[in-house]
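Weekly sync, protein design subgroup
Attendees: M.S., D.O., the rotation student, P.L. (late)

Item 1: inverse folding check
M.S. brought a backbone from last month's batch and wanted to see whether the design step gives back something sensible before we order anything. D.O. pointed out we never logged the input encoding, so this time it goes straight into the notes. Structure tokens as presented (262 positions):
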């Protein structure tokens, strides 16, 4: 049975307060065993609404749980999504204050910048490519308000897909000039290679993640808007970050993204 709207709002407010206070909470699924993924999205939307009321604005969306092995861990058969807000955005080469996060981790991803709206259902990969101005290399910084990352899918969805920040790289290329499935990525931390990946790691093609997202959002009456950035999911490992770390990811034929944590 779905949670009532009052309880969803209360849990969304609790997550918002935990985000503002940079503190952790016990897993929601342990406290409310009957919580569903749909409940979790309503909680997520409440948290995002609170942040927008406080002065942030929407700048895009993110797709998570795109790797089959990760879906099996969570016991799901599809990705999840979250929202990108203006306060989460960093430019290439930025120095980021590690004190803004609780238990951050990094992921290298491909970002899609849209030039026209996409509203599901019925969005195809061809629609995604036609609606995309360019693709860019990006870091997503994920974080969790849930104690020690002891999350189930309901916890991560409610917590905005565990999304905390993102870094947009130094180059943009039209997707029509690239083979998105074979794009290779190298992840570096403090000058050492820690992971490699390719576009096919994201649902077989990063465009698959964006078309899935447009159709999933359509079920909630939400569309992707021209000018928005869509992070299409991790191309390799998720790795821990600490103060002093320097991160760099390079995607063949596309460029790089880098940041430093202070």
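Designed sequence read out in the meeting:
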């Amino acid at each position: 049975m779905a949670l009532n709207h009052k309880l969803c709002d209360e849990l969304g407010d609790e997550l918002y307060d935990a985000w503002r206070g940079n503190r952790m909470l016990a897993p929601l699924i342990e406290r409310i065993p009957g919580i569903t993924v749909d409940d979790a999205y309503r909680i997520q939307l409440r948290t995002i609404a609170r942040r927008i009321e406080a002065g942030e604005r929407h700048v895009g969306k993110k797709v998570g749980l795109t790797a089959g092995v990760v879906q099996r861990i969570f016991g799901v058969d599809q990705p999840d999504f979250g929202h990108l807000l203006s306060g989460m955005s960093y430019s290439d080469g930025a120095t980021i204050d590690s004190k803004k996060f609780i238990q951050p981790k990094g992921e290298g991803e491909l970002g899609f910048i849209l030039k026209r709206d996409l509203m599901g259902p019925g969005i195809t990969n061809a629609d995604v490519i036609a609606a995309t101005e360019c693709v860019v290399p990006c870091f997503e910084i994920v974080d969790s308000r849930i104690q020690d990352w002891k999350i189930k899918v309901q916890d991560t969805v409610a917590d905005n897909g565990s999304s905390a920040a993102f870094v947009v790289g130094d180059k943009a290329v039209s997707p029509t000039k690239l083979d998105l499935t074979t794009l290779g990525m190298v992840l570096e931390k403090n000058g050492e290679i820690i992971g490699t990946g390719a576009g096919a790691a994201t649902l077989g093609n990063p465009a698959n993640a964006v078309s899935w997202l447009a159709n999933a959002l359509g079920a909630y009456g939400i569309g992707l808007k021209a000018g928005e950035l869509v992070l299409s999911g991790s191309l390799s490992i998720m790795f821990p970050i600490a103060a002093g770390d320097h991160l760099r990811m390079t995607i063949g034929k596309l460029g790089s993204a880098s940041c430093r944590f202070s």
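Discussion: The chain has one domain: 57-261. The first strand starts at residue 58 and ends at 64.
Action: P.L. to compare against the previous round before Friday.
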